[in-house]
Amino acid sequence: MEKENELAVRQQQNVTTFSFFNKEQFETMQRVCKLFASSELVPEMYRASEKNPLEKAMANCMIAVEISMRIGASPLMVMQNMTPIYGKPSWSSKFLISTVNTCGRFNPLQFRFTEKGMLGKVDYTEYEKVWDKTLYGGKGGYKNIAKTATFDGTKIMDIECVAFTTAKGSDKVLESSPVSIRMAIQEGWYTKAGSKWPTMTKQMLMYRAASFWTNVYAPELSMGMKTEEEIRDVMDIDYEDVTNQPQSQPQKQKEYPTENKEKEILDMSEEEESTDDVFYETSEQTSEPQPEKVENSKETPTENKEYKKKNVENKLFNAPDF
Prior knowledge:
By secondary structure, the chain is an alpha+beta fold.
């Protein structure tokens, strides 16, 4: 038994991978993906067509092939069982169960059902779309508001399901968290529109229990992705739709009157001139003040010269001795 476990682990570690940054491997992978994209056996999102350009189909195929190499599964099997739901990639539950059963590390998953009695009245939270005229700057829009409702389960038996198995070479039982019909109602899975929970109760219990088990004991097999049933059962939360909301325009720089601009230019020219005229006078050095530019100035040339002369004298007076 221990030898079988070591062999399974060794096979898992020797999974072939490729590097996106290796030129030869990348070119080889492109040819492989082009082959898949030309096949009619792959799903539509991986097949080149008028609606799905070849470049896009090859990109989807490359991601699927890379994932298949990581988990040691067939690329075609990954393509057939990885489905985008609401824009998010997800696994089918049956594929997740088969991956656990064939990975070589665990014995096949098993499921235990327990009857917990009649459900009775179960309180749960549901969300209702309500028009709010204050949204979008007074234009109005819909938003989800949570409210408490009561489910009548007096005639429904509450069933609990637990997925369990053992690792090869060990007798320790690995169990998932229990999943029950009461939990499905309280989480909103059972009462959601189009849900399969009322009609396929036991099947959905096994799918969810298997997902719980994989998330705890073998998350590397699911690559962190949820199952198709999990994503479909997720209850919508409050959100703000900004699809039709006008884009905010960049704020224009505030323009000042022409008089203020001329005043700013005058102040800057005075600062530059005063900086250029700073010097330290010694017994051997003398300075001759440069004539000041009086363009765009409201003061007379005589007033500017007197002001500049006083400014230079003050600077010379405060200059340090060498």
